[in-house]
Amino acid sequence: MIKGCYNCYKEKMFLFFFLCSVQICYGQGFYIKGTLKDASTLNPVEAAQVILLRDSTIMPKYHTLSSLDGKFTLENIPASSYRLQISCMGYKQTQISIIELTKNIDLGEVFVEEKPMELSEVTVSATVQSKADRWVYYPSDVIKKQGVDAYDILQRMNLPDLRFDMINHSLSSLKQGTLQIRINGVLSQQSDLIALQPQDIAKIEYVDNPGIAYGEGVSAVILIKTKQQYEGLQGGSRLLSAVTTNMGSAYAYFKWIGKVDFLNLKINGQYQDVRGIYANNTQKFNYPTSAMTLNSVGEDGRSKHWNGDIQLDYNHSIDNRNSFFNATVKYSGLWQPKNNSVGNVWKNDVPTFTEILSRKNKTHNIMLEFYLDKSFSNKSNLLASLTGTHITSNYNRWYNKEYTNNSLSKYESAYDVNGKHHSIIGEIIYKYPLTECHWLTVGTYERYSHTDNIYTMTESVNPISLLNFNSYNYLEFSGAFGKLSYSLGGGYSFYRIKNNSILSQYHFFRPSLSLSIPLLKKFRLQYHLNINPQEPTLAMRSDFSQTISEYEISKGNPYLKPYQSYSNQVSLSFRRTDTFLSLTAYLQYNKHPFTNNPPYYDPKIDKFVYTISNQKSFTHTQIRMYASQKLFSQALNLSGYLTLNRYINDGLKFSTSYTGLLGGLTISYDQPKWGVLASYRTAISYMFNETKTRMAPNLQLSAYYNIHRIRCSISINNPFMNPVNTIEVNSKAIQGQTHKYQKYNSNLVTIAFSYNFRIGKTRNPQKQINNTDTDNGVVR
Q: What's the whole-model pTM score?
């Protein structure tokens, strides 16, 4: 009995150890690991769900999430056949088949493609995402196939508060400030959009609430990010010629793209030799004891010039985090031969004299820039740039006056300017993640320039030397508290200016605040506060007296000071599917701005003198409404805006105010091979100091047709219109009105041809692991 129990005990113990050994074998199974990366930016993709399913079932067996650096690992997997499924918000789902897993597998880098979709913090409408300080656009394949360059894509995206000029192939912001364009982080010119082919664009970010790191005076930023999946040669050109006058432009680019490097050569040129330029004006000069009225009728004048540039870019990818180094060398030149403008003048209603103003200009500009964009594994980022510029210029101005009465002597005045300008600009920006939702940005901007201008006049020679040093150091905190996104920063600016023997130093504190919060999913409320110093140009500071006519001279002011500009902006926007609406209120207050003083009569030289000084204040208030709508599967695009401006000038010796209203409407219709566009802008009126300016309305009609890789387009500017720009001056000493005409710009017809090509191959960054008898692995 005891022996039987003993044998039974041995059998149970053997079975127990057998089951344990089987369990240990299963516990010591295989692993599958890899690193997830964005197929467009090559950045790591975190928090992606990685699920392993049995090949014959839909039930998940193992699952994990990718880490901050995109890595994932599935462990203790028994031998079998599986399907690896990768899912992440904003990306297309990816599946990988694993046949007969018999050993550990390292997938290496697994690339996932972006896909617009609804996130918890992001409201998505079709191909658009709304974020705290920007709109993110994902151009569809249909739009990319219809476009020939990045400019076409931007025009089709209906970006808010932008106006497109189809004649000049340019765009501008309706907001107060400049429009900045960056391609893969590098600051770019608008002409660089021609050198960017549509199929290379991954996404477009339109920053309508830019932070402190983008610089001062920037109202909006367009960030274009490209795919890095192509190797080979790209090139293209755009030729434009006017049919109704003698003007045109040409642009060409050639780009060699390797695995980690690319070279880009860009050549750009414009020419103009047009007629129909003249001005009619009336001036009344109030002397202490009398008054003189001059009426001038301009003769048909001519404008002739050539300008162009050539640029070479070298770009090198540093690592798999999309870090890169970029070097740019660029030459720009302007050649303007002698252009004359002639006016026949009546003095107190009596034909008195003919005046001739001649100008000639030549400028050469050489620029060298180094740019570094370095990303780190902790998600921090370092930007550094160093730019050197050398400019030489030669400007000539002649003023001749011939009296109708030959007994009176002629009056002549002339001067030549030979100038040299050198500058070096350096900037470093470091962005560091404090937490998952909060960031710290620290930056420094240093600029030094030296200008030597020699003014050779009829009577004397006047050399002027200007030294300018500007240092700007700043920091910014940004992030989100729940739904409220914020950006809070501040900086310190120091200016040191030496004008010949006059030395000036200034200090400014520059705070910045941006807030954004979504309301009811479809609405977004934004607020932006910015305080920036505005610096006078070198020409304003020049201690030089320019003779305008026999009765007038203009003087610079070496004692001009920079001033603080305080701007506040609040906007409410609504987006649903293909509808966008926004209402924006803007208030700008400038303390002690530099602007023109009222002219005065100087009896010592018997002339009226124009000067410039720091005034008391200038206030600009604006209310702007913008709307856009896409119809018929986004083929028809409608957009329009209406803006109310209020200007208040409070000078040392004057006080003026003015209210102006302007608006615009754009309609475009696009099909796969052709499209049409019409754009209209009303007249623009504004007032600074005692001068009111009115820019004539503008109407543009354009149509295009695509033939394979060639686009043919025709445009008409101001059809059946005769636009006139008007300038009115109303001061105590001088009252006047000038009407400027550019007849060549009326009924202007232009024809343009665009072409691009690409020779090479598209890289497939996805890992391919083949299954064989000796090396079982992954087959896609």
A: 0.78
